[in-house]
Design brief:
alpha/beta; 2,3-Dihydroxybiphenyl 1,2-Dioxygenase, domain 1; 9 strands; 4-stranded mixed β-sheet; VOC family protein
């Protein structure tokens, strides 16, 4: 039924101007304000995909990763984002710990998590 649809994802934020600045200036994504739906952002990603970012007055940050950005070198991506003021998450759970560079190296692909201004969790993950 949905095999040939162009599905898209979306998530909420509590401050559209802060989200627009973050996604365009910090992450370097193409961000469009939707003229038909006031205060809605569309993030354009490689391959023609879209992600909708919408305001929600009682926004609660997602407690899971809402966006993963594949990169060739996680350590370089983490440093570039830190240089732009992005703070990375640190985890120290049994069997799950990030290192001093905020990178999880405990099996599987290297990955590091950060949040957008609304507190939604994102990651950079090594291809």
């Amino acid at each position: 039924m949905f095999k040939d649809t162009k599905a898209f994802s979306g998530f909420s934020v509590n401050d559209i101007p802060a989200a627009k600045a973050f996604y365009s200036n910090i992450l370097g994504l193409d961000v469009e304000e939707n003229p038909e739906m006031e205060h809605i952002l569309t993030l354009h990603i490689t391959g023609g995909g879209k992600i909708i970012v919408y305001p929600k007055p009682n926004h609660t940050p997602a407690s899971f990763t809402v966006l993963n950005f594949p990169v060739k070198d996680v350590a370089a991506a983490v440093q570039q984002l830190k240089d732009k003021g992005v703070k990375f998450e640190s985890y120290d759970w049994p069997g799950f710990k990030t290192d001093d560079d905020n990178i999880f190296r405990g099996g599987g692909p290297l990955i590091a998590w950060f949040t957008d201004p609304a507190g939604n969790i994102m990651s950079v993950i090594q291809e």
